[in-house]
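Batch job 17 of 40 flagged for manual review because the log was empty.
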Amino acid sequence: MTPEQFELLSIYLDQETSPDERQRVEHWLSSDPHFRAVYQQQLQLRRAFLSLPTPPVDRDRVMEQVMARVQGRSPRRWLWSSVGAACLTAVTVAGSLLMPPLPAPRLDMGRQYGEPTPIAQEPLRLAMERPIVPMPPLVPQPGSDGVREAP
């Protein structure tokens, strides 16, 4: 039995198959003894599961218990969260008031490292037509193997 067949069998037992799927499952039930045995086993398992007794549940009582817990926790959590936030604020304010102000950093590097050396001003040269470094050709020249030797 393939996983697809087992999935279709499960859908068939839940009565959720399309007409085409139902026809395929019924064909397998009539022609495949192994498929039929698995169907019988799944059908017995389904009947046994549905026949299990369910304990009685008083929904109103359960709802009251849940609501009592939710309402009981909320004020406590709110109180502790508020106390924690107030303590954090108090420590931050006290720290900023009690700490002496830090001096601003001074960027006076001339005194610290000596006077800066003046840089000679030279004109900017662009070497577009005559590059400083020889450039290889983009396309290999005819008759060469494309490898250039170093000058």
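Reviewer: the log was empty due to a logging misconfiguration, but the result itself is present. The first helix runs from residue 3 to 13. Unflagging and moving on to job 18.
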